[in-house]
Structure formats: C-alpha cells, structure tokens
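Memo to structure team: turn this sequence into structure tokens by end of day. - J.P.
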Amino acid sequence: METPYLQYLNDKDQFPRSLVHGPIRRFLRTHLDLLPPGSRLLDAGCGNGIESGPYSELLEVHAVDNQTEHISHCRKTYPNARYQLADLARLGFPDDHFAAILMNQVIEHLDRPVEVVSELRRLLKPGGVLIVATPNYGNFAWPLIENTYHRWFVTDFDAEENHGTHYTPDLLRRHLDGFTDIAVGTVCLRTILVATARKTP
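Reply from structure team:
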C-alpha cells in the first residue's frame, strides 16, 4: 500500500494539480530531450521517478532519493534506470560524472541546499547542466495556493512545514552561485521557478 506522500506524487497529473505539474514537465523535457543518446543523467530526489524514468530507454539514468518506498516503487516501474537510497549532500559518484542533473521540486525541502548544490556541481561534467524547478515564493500566487488548495485538499502533505527554503528568483540565483549561464524563469502563471545552470567548462 502506498504511503500518503507517494500517492500524492502519483496523483500529480490529475486535475487540478496537472495545471501546475504539466508546465513543469514540459520545461524539464525541453532540456532532457536535448541530451544525446547514452548521456548520463542524475535525478536528484527522484520521488516516484516520473520525470526521469521514461528516459531510461535512451539515456543512462541514475536516480537517488532518501525514501525507501520511493526507491522500491521506481525500481519496479522503471527497471532500466539505476536507483539508490542516498543523502544528496554526500553522493558516492565520481567527479565530472553526469551530463545533466535534474532536481525537480526538491531544493525547497533541503536542510542544506547550498551544500547539496555544491555536491551536484562536483558531479557534473564541465559544460554539464543542472535543471531545477521549485515553488516561487516571490509571487503572491504560490503562498495563496499553499494556504487554500494545499491546506484544504492535500491534508497528508503540509507544504508550509516541508518547504524549508522559500525561493524567490534572486535567492535561487544566489544558491546557484558557482555555475555559469544561470537562467531563471517561471512557468504556470509565475507560480513555479525554473532554472538551468552550467558547470564551467
């Protein structure tokens, strides 16, 4: 039986949550689709695996999460990808290992986001890309969503409690310091920040 949070992840394509998660997925796929076949991709905080797992027929997909149930679910659903339980701040991969790293709605949950971003930068190949999505607390709409829809309808997930860092565009840029070609934008009526950043070649 699924835990409430895994069910929450598996239901994110259902209306009305699809109004938020659909644009995020389109942004992510815009960048993942550019990777040459065989490229090595890391999904940092993979959840239910839906963002990276479908690419495992084309790419060498590695994914990590800190929840045992998520890893078990992903291994059953996407057997061609490689999953492991891990702390994002201390990953066992070698330097310069991945062509791209995906971090979808993860960074806001982290206790030590700057430390994690530094670790992910270590893992990227020179010229590799970090792809990030996170709620935009610099816009009035996301806090409104948290205090209405999340409070009334998603009773098993408290966004206010679980989102330790409230990102604005400026804060996200600061936490991506050390990368080059940092681009921060928004999707879904500016409720979600989306960003790409590259490791210096």
